[in-house]
Amino acid sequence: MMIVALAKDYVPVSGDFSRQVGDDEWITVPADEKGRIFKLRQMQGDRRAQLLIAAAEEESARSLAAQFCLWVASVPNRRFYATYRFAGLDHQWPVMIENIDTPAQSIQTDEKNLTLLVVDIMLRESIPLFRAPKGDEPNDGKGDGSPEDPNGYPYTRVIRITDEVVGTEMQVDDTYQVPIFGGGAIAIANTDDALTTLLNSTMPSHNL
User: Which residue stretches belong to region Disordered (predicted)?
Assistant: First the structure.
Protein backbone atom coordinates (compact mmCIF):
# COMPACT_ATOMS: atom_id res chain seq x y z
CA MET A 1 0.00 0.00 0.00
CA MET A 2 1.18 3.53 -0.81
CA ILE A 3 -0.15 6.81 0.64
CA VAL A 4 0.80 10.35 -0.45
CA ALA A 5 0.52 13.35 1.90
CA LEU A 6 1.11 17.04 1.13
CA ALA A 7 2.38 19.65 3.58
CA LYS A 8 0.19 22.63 4.49
CA ASP A 9 2.96 25.21 4.14
CA TYR A 10 3.89 27.05 0.94
CA VAL A 11 7.30 28.46 -0.05
CA PRO A 12 7.69 30.72 -3.14
CA VAL A 13 10.43 29.66 -5.54
CA SER A 14 13.71 31.55 -5.44
CA GLY A 15 14.38 34.31 -7.94
CA ASP A 16 17.25 32.45 -9.60
CA PHE A 17 14.83 29.75 -10.79
CA SER A 18 11.83 31.78 -11.92
CA ARG A 19 9.75 34.81 -11.03
CA GLN A 20 6.27 35.36 -9.71
CA VAL A 21 3.88 37.03 -12.16
CA GLY A 22 2.18 39.38 -9.73
CA ASP A 23 0.72 41.82 -12.27
CA ASP A 24 -2.34 40.92 -14.31
CA GLU A 25 -1.61 39.85 -17.89
CA TRP A 26 -4.25 39.95 -20.63
CA ILE A 27 -4.91 36.49 -22.07
CA THR A 28 -7.24 34.60 -24.35
CA VAL A 29 -7.71 30.83 -24.16
CA PRO A 30 -7.35 29.11 -27.56
CA ALA A 31 -9.94 26.47 -26.63
CA ASP A 32 -12.52 29.09 -25.62
CA GLU A 33 -15.07 29.14 -28.43
CA LYS A 34 -16.45 32.48 -27.19
CA GLY A 35 -13.08 34.21 -27.60
CA ARG A 36 -13.25 35.94 -24.22
CA ILE A 37 -10.46 38.04 -22.74
CA PHE A 38 -9.40 37.38 -19.14
CA LYS A 39 -6.61 38.38 -16.77
CA LEU A 40 -4.00 36.01 -15.41
CA ARG A 41 -1.41 35.97 -12.65
CA GLN A 42 0.90 33.07 -11.88
CA MET A 43 2.65 31.95 -8.73
CA GLN A 44 5.30 29.26 -8.42
CA GLY A 45 6.09 27.54 -5.16
CA ASP A 46 7.70 24.54 -3.53
CA ARG A 47 5.54 22.08 -1.63
CA ARG A 48 6.78 19.22 0.51
CA ALA A 49 5.24 15.80 0.03
CA GLN A 50 5.76 12.39 1.59
CA LEU A 51 5.16 8.95 0.15
CA LEU A 52 4.42 6.22 2.69
CA ILE A 53 5.02 2.62 1.63
CA ALA A 54 3.46 -0.08 3.81
CA ALA A 55 3.89 -3.82 3.38
CA ALA A 56 3.73 -6.94 5.51
CA GLU A 57 7.16 -8.14 4.40
CA GLU A 58 10.33 -6.06 4.55
CA GLU A 59 11.39 -7.28 1.10
CA SER A 60 8.13 -6.12 -0.49
CA ALA A 61 8.39 -2.63 1.03
CA ARG A 62 12.02 -2.31 -0.06
CA SER A 63 11.16 -3.46 -3.58
CA LEU A 64 8.37 -0.89 -3.92
CA ALA A 65 10.67 1.87 -2.65
CA ALA A 66 13.43 0.88 -5.06
CA GLN A 67 11.02 0.85 -8.01
CA PHE A 68 9.68 4.29 -7.09
CA CYS A 69 13.21 5.74 -6.82
CA LEU A 70 14.00 4.25 -10.22
CA TRP A 71 10.81 5.74 -11.66
CA VAL A 72 11.71 9.21 -10.33
CA ALA A 73 15.21 8.93 -11.82
CA SER A 74 13.68 8.86 -15.32
CA VAL A 75 13.56 12.44 -16.64
CA PRO A 76 10.09 12.26 -18.31
CA ASN A 77 8.54 11.07 -15.03
CA ARG A 78 9.73 14.09 -13.06
CA ARG A 79 7.18 16.33 -14.77
CA PHE A 80 3.41 15.98 -14.66
CA TYR A 81 0.39 18.28 -14.81
CA ALA A 82 -2.21 19.53 -12.36
CA THR A 83 -5.69 20.45 -13.61
CA TYR A 84 -7.29 23.82 -12.82
CA ARG A 85 -10.89 24.52 -13.84
CA PHE A 86 -11.82 27.95 -15.19
CA ALA A 87 -14.44 29.23 -17.65
CA GLY A 88 -15.76 25.74 -18.30
CA LEU A 89 -12.34 24.49 -19.41
CA ASP A 90 -9.65 22.32 -17.81
CA HIS A 91 -6.24 23.96 -17.83
CA GLN A 92 -3.09 21.85 -17.43
CA TRP A 93 -0.23 23.47 -15.49
CA PRO A 94 3.12 21.77 -14.82
CA VAL A 95 4.38 20.28 -11.57
CA MET A 96 7.99 19.11 -11.26
CA ILE A 97 9.69 16.73 -8.83
CA GLU A 98 12.79 18.65 -7.80
CA ASN A 99 14.78 16.09 -5.81
CA ILE A 100 15.90 13.03 -7.75
CA ASP A 101 17.69 11.54 -4.72
CA THR A 102 14.79 10.02 -2.80
CA PRO A 103 15.99 7.66 -0.07
CA ALA A 104 13.35 5.62 1.73
CA GLN A 105 13.63 5.84 5.52
CA SER A 106 12.23 3.23 7.88
CA ILE A 107 9.63 4.10 10.52
CA GLN A 108 9.68 1.92 13.62
CA THR A 109 6.40 0.39 14.78
CA ASP A 110 5.36 -2.16 17.39
CA GLU A 111 3.84 -4.38 14.70
CA LYS A 112 6.07 -7.32 13.80
CA ASN A 113 4.42 -7.99 10.44
CA LEU A 114 4.39 -4.37 9.20
CA THR A 115 7.18 -2.45 7.46
CA LEU A 116 6.81 1.30 6.86
CA LEU A 117 9.11 3.31 4.58
CA VAL A 118 8.82 7.07 3.96
CA VAL A 119 10.15 8.96 0.93
CA ASP A 120 10.46 12.77 1.10
CA ILE A 121 9.62 14.62 -2.12
CA MET A 122 9.83 18.30 -3.08
CA LEU A 123 7.28 19.44 -5.67
CA ARG A 124 7.69 22.67 -7.64
CA GLU A 125 4.29 23.77 -8.89
CA SER A 126 3.00 26.52 -11.17
CA ILE A 127 -0.42 27.81 -10.09
CA PRO A 128 -2.59 30.05 -12.31
CA LEU A 129 -4.83 32.76 -10.86
CA PHE A 130 -7.46 33.57 -13.46
CA ARG A 131 -9.59 36.67 -13.19
CA ALA A 132 -12.84 37.61 -14.90
CA PRO A 133 -14.89 40.83 -14.59
CA LYS A 134 -16.81 41.21 -11.35
CA GLY A 135 -20.47 42.10 -11.25
CA ASP A 136 -19.91 45.87 -11.34
CA GLU A 137 -17.09 45.82 -13.92
CA PRO A 138 -17.58 46.32 -17.67
CA ASN A 139 -17.79 43.01 -19.52
CA ASP A 140 -18.47 41.61 -22.97
CA GLY A 141 -21.70 39.80 -22.00
CA LYS A 142 -20.54 36.52 -23.55
CA GLY A 143 -21.11 34.49 -20.37
CA ASP A 144 -23.71 34.28 -17.63
CA GLY A 145 -21.42 35.64 -14.90
CA SER A 146 -21.00 32.30 -13.10
CA PRO A 147 -17.58 30.76 -12.30
CA GLU A 148 -18.23 28.07 -14.91
CA ASP A 149 -19.22 30.58 -17.61
CA PRO A 150 -17.84 34.04 -16.72
CA ASN A 151 -18.04 37.11 -18.87
CA GLY A 152 -14.86 38.34 -20.49
CA TYR A 153 -13.42 41.83 -20.47
CA PRO A 154 -14.59 44.12 -23.27
CA TYR A 155 -12.09 44.85 -26.00
CA THR A 156 -11.38 47.72 -28.36
CA ARG A 157 -11.65 47.21 -32.09
CA VAL A 158 -8.89 48.79 -34.12
CA ILE A 159 -9.59 49.82 -37.70
CA ARG A 160 -6.60 50.66 -39.87
CA ILE A 161 -7.24 52.63 -43.07
CA THR A 162 -4.37 52.96 -45.53
CA ASP A 163 -4.24 55.83 -48.03
CA GLU A 164 -1.43 56.03 -50.59
CA VAL A 165 -1.28 59.84 -50.35
CA VAL A 166 -2.13 60.64 -46.74
CA GLY A 167 -0.60 57.54 -45.14
CA THR A 168 -1.95 55.28 -42.42
CA GLU A 169 -4.55 56.35 -39.89
CA MET A 170 -6.18 54.49 -37.03
CA GLN A 171 -9.58 54.80 -35.38
CA VAL A 172 -10.42 53.43 -31.93
CA ASP A 173 -14.11 52.97 -31.11
CA ASP A 174 -14.37 52.14 -27.41
CA THR A 175 -13.81 53.72 -24.00
CA TYR A 176 -12.65 50.90 -21.72
CA GLN A 177 -9.16 50.34 -20.36
CA VAL A 178 -8.72 47.06 -22.20
CA PRO A 179 -6.10 45.55 -24.50
CA ILE A 180 -5.75 46.61 -28.12
CA PHE A 181 -4.63 43.87 -30.47
CA GLY A 182 -3.33 45.32 -33.69
CA GLY A 183 -0.26 46.51 -35.54
CA GLY A 184 1.81 43.72 -34.03
CA ALA A 185 1.53 45.17 -30.51
CA ILE A 186 -0.57 44.75 -27.40
CA ALA A 187 -1.32 47.99 -25.56
CA ILE A 188 -3.93 49.64 -23.35
CA ALA A 189 -6.73 51.66 -24.91
CA ASN A 190 -7.32 55.37 -24.43
CA THR A 191 -3.75 56.39 -23.66
CA ASP A 192 -1.37 58.33 -25.87
CA ASP A 193 1.33 55.72 -25.31
CA ALA A 194 -0.96 52.95 -26.56
CA LEU A 195 -1.83 54.76 -29.78
CA THR A 196 1.81 55.73 -30.33
CA THR A 197 2.89 52.11 -29.90
CA LEU A 198 0.37 50.91 -32.43
CA LEU A 199 0.92 53.67 -34.97
CA ASN A 200 4.68 53.13 -34.94
CA SER A 201 4.30 49.43 -35.71
CA THR A 202 4.73 48.20 -39.27
CA MET A 203 3.03 44.81 -38.89
CA PRO A 204 -0.53 44.30 -40.19
CA SER A 205 -3.34 44.75 -37.69
CA HIS A 206 -5.96 42.23 -36.62
CA ASN A 207 -9.58 42.84 -35.74
CA LEU A 208 -10.99 40.91 -32.79
Answer: 130-154
